[in-house]
Amino acid sequence: MTTRLIFYPQGQPAFFCPACRVYHEFSVDVANSLGGMWTWNEDHDSPTIDQTVITKIGDQASGQVWICEAWVHDGLVSFMEATTHLAAGQTLPLQPGE
């Protein structure tokens, strides 16, 4: 079975973002520090997450921050228009997790 997600020791799933080149995690079962909690279809090969995952990456002190807002569906990741990197508006396949 191919898995497109990894799981951190605390049990949090994460997907490798092909645009940011880092893993983005999302909280299931327990709310994160901001109160967010997601559900997913538990399909490791073609995951679907019930809502977008928003990640801020960079150095806020220097002001060099970009926002990645992604919706994972059927093993694909669609980048919303609010995304501030070059993949905004695109849909790309998720890569297998390592």
Task: Produce a short descriptive summary.
By secondary structure, the chain is an all-beta fold.
Strand content: 25-35%
* Structural class by helix and strand composition: mainly beta
Average pLDDT, all residues: 87
Count of DSSP-assigned helices: 0
Rg for CA atoms: 13 Å
Question: How do the helices and strands follow one another from N- to C-terminus?
Answer: EEEEEEE
Number of strands: 7
C-alpha end-to-end distance: 13 Å
Strand adjacency order, main sheet? 4-5-6-7
Question: Which ranges are low-confidence, i.e. pLDDT below 50, for 5 or more consecutive residues?
Answer: none
Largest sheet: 4 strands, antiparallel
Report the principal-axis shape. Answer: globular
Helix content: under 10%
